[in-house]
Design goal:
mainly alpha; 82% helix; globular
């Protein structure tokens, strides 16, 4: 139990370090203000509230059917998060036009669930250390599940940064189709994640990893509009 607690503490601390390193890099290299994080955090919380209300309204029995529930929850996530992201640009960040600014807002959007997972891991790790007894062995299965869940909180950061840049194109180019493209991508990703398994599944980690690679490719290949 003590080794499990230590491993969980290290995983939680690793999430926080990775998060801080990313934000610091964005801030230093592109002189992007940390204040833009709040825009992304507000859009995430707004989308989360919408999702919670939608789940309460929808038929629980219908959501319990895996393919149907996966599609419905994926669509709810895609529409709610990308529409609130667009509202964030319209009402909270009208002066944003650079890619680093969009990345910081996207990082703020993905920061809330990542921070929640990190704090939970730290709390579980400390509790496990406090309750540890001599002679207990390390539960590798539990560590594997905790690590998978941590990665499934960290990897979506890249997706949110890419989708933030994608949604911003609607305002820079005056074409609303970019928002629908972001909704389609986000919904597809979440449907796949729901189908592959729970958040502690390594199949979901592989899926999220592939999405992160695709998101990096999108960021490299989608240039700002020519003036």
């Amino acid at each position: 139990m003590a080794l499990y607690g230590l491993a969980t503490l290290l995983i939680g601390a690793g999430l926080l370090i990775a998060m801080l390193a990313l934000l610091k890099t964005l801030h230093r290299r592109a002189n992007t203000p940390y204040a833009l994080l709040t825009v992304g955090m507000i859009t995430y919380l707004g989308a989360l509230l919408t999702q919670l209300l939608a789940v309460r309204v929808l038929d629980r029995a219908l959501l319990g059917i895996l393919p149907v529930g996966a599609v419905i929850l994926g669509l709810v996530a895609g529409f709610s998060e990308e529409i609130t992201r667009a509202f964030g640009y319209q009402w909270l960040a009208r002066g944003v036009f650079r890619r680093p600014q969009a990345l910081m807002i996207g990082a703020g959007h993905g920061l809330v669930p990542l921070l929640y997972t990190a704090l939970i891991a730290l709390n579980v790790g400390l509790s496990a250390l406090a309750e540890a007894e001599p002679g207990q062995t390390l539960a590798l299965t539990d560590v594997s599940r905790t690590l998978a869940e941590a990665l499934n909180s960290l990897l979506p950061l890249v997706m949110h940064m890419a989708l933030s840049w994608l949604v911003l194109q609607a305002f820079l180019r005056g074409e609303i189709g970019w928002i629908f493209a972001a909704i389609f991508v986000h919904s597809t990703v979440e449907i796949g994640a729901n189908l592959f398994g729970p958040p502690h599944s390594w199949a979901v980690v592989i899926w999220r990893g592939l999405v992160a690679l695709g998101s990096l490719a999108l960021l490299r290949t989608l240039p700002p509009p020519s003036s």
